[in-house]
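Treating backbone geometry as a discrete language has practical consequences that deserve illustration. The sequence in question and its structure tokens are set out directly beneath this paragraph.
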Amino acid sequence: MLSHERVWAAIDALAARYSLSASGLAKRAGLDSTAFNKSKRQSADGRPRWPSTESLAKIIEATNSSLDELFALIEGKPSRSAATPLPVQASTVPLIGFAQAGAGGFFDDAGFPAGQGWDLIELPAAAGEGSYALEVQGDSMLPLYRHGDMLVVQPNAAVRKGDRVVVKTTSGEVMAKVLEKRTTTTVDLVSLNPDHPHRRLAASEVEWLARIVWASQ
């Protein structure tokens, strides 16, 4: 049954599955860190407050999970309380820093990991084939991503307007942005940090562009 209590319990369970608190899950999804606090689950007059469909879509994307997985938690399947953390599905992916990524020799022409010198890290969630992690360096991606955060990208994932992406230019610059528009001739990117300008690149300047599918917090 789709009830207020079960929906919020499923969100708590999804957070626990990926070793996050409810506030950590909200932050990873790009929401206010208090969005899923227990105090926000009731309105001032005591009526139940439901999470928005946009919030649910964002946490599904941020955890690289699925709508089926979330509904299974709401329904308490398989034979578990939705408030009980599910087993961690770990995977190992290559890791490299943004500065190294710009130096060349670590990727093929399609943006997949190649060559030597990769470290390996274990993620609390399963990663798609060809995925790898980039370690954030500096403050150019604040307030969303901080120095030391890990961004997992998947080169073969479909990229749409509004997606967070990592872009490498032919000059060796590597950056995390939001894709605003992409045509056959230009790529428009919105900066995560308001102190940094938006970018318009010629398509010929983009060596590769990959979607961010997971980020540590």
Remarks:
- The domain at 4-74 is CATH 1.10.260 (434 Repressor (Amino-terminal Domain)).
- The first helix runs from residue 4 to 17.
- The chain has two domains: 4-74, 91-215.
- The first strand starts at residue 91 and ends at 97.
